[in-house]
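[job 4471] stage=fold_predict status=RUNNING
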Amino acid sequence: SSGINAEYGERLDILLQLKLTVKEHDCKLTKDIVELIDREADLLMRGTKEKNLEGLRQRISSLFLQYIKTPLFNAEAANLLRVPEDPSSLRKNIYYCRGCGNYLPSTDFELTTNARSIGRCRKCKNLDSEGRLREDFSRYRSLLQSIRSAEEAYNDGSKIIFLLTEADLRYLAENIWGAQSVLSQWEDTYDLTLVRWNRRQEWSPWNCVLLTNEEARAHSKLTKPEEAYGPVFTQKIKYRHILGKQYFSSMPKLADYMSKNLTSINMPLPSNAEKVMYGGRKKEAEKVSLPPLTEAK
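[job 4471] inference complete, writing structure tokens
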């Protein structure tokens, strides 16, 4: 009995403190809370069982939660509101994200002083970055540099290699030449290089051959590669040169250069071209029909 009275006493103290707190603001919400507090206090004094007070206490808790969520009574609550109290503030610094289609505050965008359009929010950019396939062009970057250095050493006005990018060189090595030495079928890209087929002509996708570094040094000493390799092997090389020219001639800079300096090749490909070029091995990525290439920048 004394324990029950003690619990009632603590509850009455809590109700009293709550009543004094909410009475600081005079409005309908606080009046409703005070009325419910007085009702519970009266029922406690009458000895009402707790299970019969559950509904009343839930109503008091619900109204008090509404009370502390109101910025007028609790200033800190304004910092936690998703929608500001003043609807006019929604019209300020709100932008449309082209990625997710949501209207978001300016803080969710990467804005610059000279930006002409808003674009996508940070979240969309991060998702796009995570979802993209990363390609490592480091090997082809170093290969491109080595070819350019070799062409500069020839000092014969070679220009085409300086119009290509790492991505172009990767396509040439992997899709035209099958990513392996045409002589030994060696596939370690770090031991392969693209050298001039005919050293008297400048390097180009239609005047190169993919060889190992050791094979390339021996090849560079040949003055007439057609005679050294024979007609069958030379035919395989020529067909790859035709593929290279067909693909890379779609680049505006190369097309312009070719129209001024080179004679176009209009040799039709025979029905067994794939077999001749790849020794009977089927490679879907090395079909004769090739997609257009964007201009190198």
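[job 4471] summary: The two ends are 90 Å apart (CA to CA).
[job 4471] exit 0
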